[in-house]
Design brief:
The complex is a heterodimer of chains A (220) and B (416). Chain A is an alpha/beta fold and 220 residues long. Chain A is built from seven helices and ten strands. The longest helix of chain A has 18 residues, at 173-190. The chains are: A alpha/beta (220), B alpha+beta (416). Chain A binds chain B through residues 44-45, 48, 53-54, 73-74, 77-78, 80-82, 84, 86, 88-90, 92, 94-97, 101, 105-106, 108-109, 137, 153, 157, 165-166, 169, and chain B through 2, 4-5, 8-9, 11-13, 295-296, 298-309, 408-410, 413-416.
């Protein structure tokens, strides 16, 4: 009952190529799990399936007891809006929007007071210690600042789990450490469930549990 | 649709926005200007007839007079019989009707062009009422005449003088400056229709060439429903016969040159080409823009935007851009219209409508009506253009955004 995420017998094929092979795993509420593996091991595809960005060819995924495997595209969009936060390696901020607007992006389709929306975004930027850059566009932010904005965006919808795909992959070691500290802080203080994909063994070592993938399978 | 996002996308991607707005603006401006120009030429072609408040002028060609003595008919305007006139008056689409009688009068001491008309009828030469420079306008049944100003100056004629035309004396009630008003139905002396008809009936030369009764005429002025002018012209031709000479705005347009004789078809074809090219450019620009934003669309979907949210956002951007393009195109076309309005056009008056005999000095010279091209953009054309540009935005934006909203976020957000 404490599982936030349960995946059973997941497989994913692209034409004849099987990328994920019969993977089953669980993540407990408040657990910080790291998915490691070499490039091409299928970890990003597995993350996409677990987060509802992609449908598996076989198997089931449920988050907090709700199955997402048979959901329609619109149901999945609503699910991602309400339950999930994403952090990407390349930040994927909208270049024309300011930092606070990027944070508020998931809330744009939600009917809510504009003032409350901005307040919520600003509070998260403040937690990320980047509120002084709230009005700046991504092109004027450093890599670390961009990733802090991206983390704030992942949190703005108050998700039940965060999926982070190589969140420090484009950052130097010092900035990587700072970002990792933010994620650990979120996990420890807010008991946030996090599933992070990385190939950095040092970063993986600081998480609760490491899942190793090789050739589309969970090996340990 | 989020307006902040919409506004920032359009503002911060200036090159992209301006490319879409300007391409549409140019297309819309071409569309409006060509249509306005076509209408202007049509309107200009109406002017010679509009000056006498008519849409159609009807004459019948006949034989050359045997002897140029006393009142004769010009060979371009012989008798139109009373029963023919009544048939024409009964045609559908006629809104006003006037008749006149043009005579060349060869007296011993002078040649006079005489035009008889009903001074109380505003259709036809009755429009000269506003061109009286001295004295008063003609009154029915008072044995009066109007003298054209150049003729009056030539023969030192003053208001109140008596002039003898065709052996009969008339008192000059006023002087008119007809040349300022019209190039059609210009004469030296204007008489009441009854007096002119009497003169024609009593003329041996007239009767020899073209038998004439008291109620006949030789020029008809018709004011018609604009939609029915061409149909009326055909009906009139069938009544008058092969020798009918019927002037309409379309016939004047033909005299303007081959390009403008095709004016409507030309403008329609050019407008369609401009429209298709515009739509293709807008489609290409927007498709390119959206392809560049595939990652952004993927992010929107990843963070929970539904397909409908994405479509609504992109559709809003597309409509706003095209609306701006339409408004800018309208401004461009207003500037173009004001510049084109400076162009002067010479509309040739057909020889058969010129009252001066060709054998007199200057009689064979071409006569033109010179006017500034009346290029105006009607509110209907403006509204249509704005509606059209918005529709282009809605259709192209709708098609493209529906297509790109189906993008799978996992495909575009894979680590680079």
């Amino acid at each position: 009952m404490n599982n936030i995420l349960t995946a059973a017998n997941l497989s994913k094929s692209f034409d004849s190529l099987q990328v994920v092979k019969d993977v089953s795993l669980t993540i407990q509420k408040g657990e910080f799990v790291c998915l490691v593996g070499k490039s091409g091991s299928g970890k990003t595809t597995l993350l996409s399936i677990l987060s509802g960005l992609e449908q598996p060819t076989k198997g089931t995924v449920s988050i907090n007891g709700t199955s997402i495997t048979d959901s329609s595209e619109n149901e999945l969009a609503l699910f991602r809006r309400e339950k999930v936060g994403f952090i990407f390696q390349s930040f994927h901020l909208i270049p024309t929007l300011s930092a606070w607007e990027n944070v508020a992006l998931p809330l744009f389709p939600v009917k809510m007071d504009k003032g409350i929306r901005k307040q919520r975004a600003m509070k998260l930027l403040s937690q990320m210690e980047i509120d002084h850059r709230a009005a700046h566009r991504p092109s004027t932010l450093s890599g670390g600042e961009k990733q802090r904005v991206a983390i704030a965006r992942a949190l703005v919808n108050r998700p039940e789990i965060i999926f982070a795909d190589e969140p420090t992959g484009n950052l130097d070691s010092e900035t990587s450490g700072a970002i990792m500290n933010i994620l650990k802080h979120l996990h420890e203080k807010n008991t946030m469930s996090i599933l992070m994909v990385t190939h950095d063994q040092d970063l993986a070592a600081s998480t609760d549990r490491i899942i190793h993938m090789k050739d589309g399978k969970v090996v340990s | 649709m989020n307006l902040i996002y919409l506004g920032k996308e359009l503002y911060h991607r200036k090159r992209r926005t301006l490319a879409a707005v300007f391409s549409l603006a140019v297309g819309i401006a071409i569309l409006i200007t060509i249509n306005a120009l076509s209408k202007a030429y049509n309107e200009a072609a109406r002017m010679p007839l509009k000056e006498i408040d008519a849409d159609i002028v009807v004459q019948r060609a006949g034989n050359v007079p045997e002897n140029l003595v006393g009142p004769v008919f010009a060979c371009s305007a012989v008798t139109i019989k009373k029963d023919e006139i009544n048939q024409i008056r009964g045609l559908q689409g006629i809104q006003g009707f006037g008749q006149a009688l043009l005579l060349w009068v060869f007296d011993e001491d002078r040649f006079t062009i005489v035009l008889g008309f009903d001074p109380d009828n505003p259709v036809g030469p009755g429009t000269l009422r506003s061109q009286v420079t001295q004295g008063t306008f003609l009154e029915k049944g008072k044995n009066q005449a109007l003298a054209e100003i150049s003729y009056a100056n030539n023969y030192n004629i003053q208001t109140g003088d008596n002039v003898t035309v065709g052996g009969k004396s008339y008192q000059i009630s006023g002087i008119v400056d007809a040349s300022r008003a019209t190039k059609i139905a210009v004469a030296n002396i204007y008489l009441d229709m009854d007096d002119a008809q009497r003169m024609a009936k009593e003329s041996e030369q007239v009767q020899n060439v073209s038998p004439f009764e008291s109620n006949d005429a030789n020029i008809l002025f018709i004011k018609a429903n604009p939609e029915q002018i061409d149909a009326l012209a055909r009906s009139i031709k069938s009544i008058i016969g092969e020798k009918a000479s019927i002037a309409t705005p379309a016939s004047f347009l033909k005299h303007l040159g081959s390009l403008f004789s095709l004016s409507d078809k030309f403008s329609l074809a050019t407008s369609m080409i401009a429209l298709v090219i515009t739509i293709l450019i807008v489609l290409k620009t927007m498709a390119g823009n959206l392809a560049e934003r595939a990652n952004e669309i993927g992010v929107l979907k990843a963070v929970g935007w539904s397909n409908k949210d994405v479509v609504s956002q992109l559709l809003g951007e597309s409509i706003i851009q095209c609306l701006a393009g339409g408004i800018l195109g309208l401004i461009f076309s207003l500037i173009a219209a004001s510049m084109l309005g400076l162009i002067q056009v010479n509309i040739p008056i057909p020889w058969e409508m010129s009252p001066t005999p060709h054998f007199l000095p200057g009689g064979g010279d071409p006569v033109f009506k010179t006017l500034q091209l009346p290029v105006t953009i009607s509110w209907r054309l403006a509204a249509f253009s704005i509606l059209l540009s918005t529709t282009i935005g809605a259709v192209t934006g709708g098609l493209l955004s529906r297509h790109i909203s189906r993008i799978k976020p996992s495909e575009v957000l894979k680590n680079e």
